[in-house]
Amino acid sequence: MIELKSVGEIDAMREAGRVVAAVHGAVRERAAVGVSLKQLDEVARTVIEEARAGASFLGYHPSFGAMPYPGVICTSVNGVMLHGLPSPYRLRDGDLVSIDCAAYVDGWHADGTVSFVVGQPREEDLKLIKVAEETLAAGIEAAVPGGRMGDIGHAMSTVGRGAGYGMQNDFGGHGIGRAMHESPFVPNEATRGRGLRLRPGLVIAIEPSLMAGGGDEYVMDSDGWSVCSADGSRSVHVEHTVAVTEDGPVILTLP
Ligand code: MF3
Ligand code: CO
């Protein structure tokens, strides 16, 4: 079932979205050469705790994870595309990092991901991030009342694939609200004009991921969580929680 949210409920979700954005800001500030992914997770825990919010990922155990999730953020570095575990790995110069976080306030969840480079960036990594952000922006722009779910995936794949990058469609976006993962599924790639009719009150996480090598294949790491590009190429993930409103799409995961 798809639950539409009232204006008041969307406001409540924005509070959770602010916490997610605060985590992104704090983690990004702390991320530097020599800092471990575990330390970044600790930074995120502190921000969530101080905001008196809850960590949606901690202990979450979906079918695609080998065990309950042990952290509050996903830390996906270089060839890891999604769900990278906050391990003792220490960041190196030029690492390409995606930080995925979801938090809840008063029982309402928000979910978002940012990507950035630590230290001296490679030109091609900055381009990958830029195109991923443009891909997400195109998806958000299509999240308007009267549109269709397929318009979102079509807009995103047009940008991402148009730039020559690979995309996968098994891990996409999702409805979000009282639970982090709700119906409907939000494909990264779809046919324009097809799928669910978008209505005011629909709140979804839109989360495209791109693989620099141009292939669409991914592999699960032996850690049971990390989803990696099959060709080992660098990958990027970005995400916002977005409300479809009468006035158009509203991003809830901003500071
Ligand atoms: N943003 C990701 C998603 O919606 C985060 C899942 S990580 C998990 O699938 F730890 F919660 F599983
Ligand atoms: Co998500």
UniProtKB/TrEMBL annotation:
Q: What does the record give as cofactor?
A: Co(2+); Zn(2+); Mn(2+); Fe(2+)
> What are the GO cellular component annotations?
cytosol
**Enzyme Commission number(s):** 3.4.11.18
Q: Which UniProt keywords apply?
A: Aminopeptidase, Hydrolase, Metal-binding, Protease
What does the record give under GO molecular function?
initiator methionyl aminopeptidase activity; metal ion binding; metalloaminopeptidase activity
| Residues binding a divalent metal cation 2 | D111, H174, E207, E239
The free-text note explaining how the cofactor binds reads: Binds 2 divalent metal cations per subunit. Has a high-affinity and a low affinity metal-binding site. The true nature of the physiological cofactor is under debate. The enzyme is active with cobalt, zinc, manganese or divalent iron ions. Most likely, methionine aminopeptidases function as mononuclear Fe(2+)-metalloproteases under physiological conditions, and the catalytically relevant metal-binding site has been assigned to the histidine-containing high-affinity site.
Tell me which residues make up the Peptidase M24 domain: 12-246
Where, in this chain's numbering, is substrate bound? H83, H181
Positions annotated to bind a divalent metal cation 1:
D100, D111, E239
UniProt catalytic activity:
Release of N-terminal amino acids, preferentially methionine, from peptides and arylamides
**InterPro entries to which the protein is assigned, alphabetical:** Creatinase/aminopeptidase-like (IPR036005), Pept_M24 (IPR000994), Pept_M24_MAP (IPR001714), Pept_M24A_MAP1 (IPR002467)
| Gene Ontology biological process terms from the UniProt entry | proteolysis
Q: What does this protein do?
A: Removes the N-terminal methionine from nascent proteins. The N-terminal methionine is often cleaved when the second residue in the primary sequence is small and uncharged (Met-Ala-, Cys, Gly, Pro, Ser, Thr, or Val). Requires deformylation of the N(alpha)-formylated initiator methionine before it can be hydrolyzed.
Its quaternary organisation is: Monomer.
The record's comment on protein family reads: Belongs to the peptidase M24A family. Methionine aminopeptidase type 1 subfamily.
NCBIfam families in the record: met_pdase_I
What is this protein's record name? Methionine aminopeptidase
The scientific name of the source species is Nonomuraea maritima
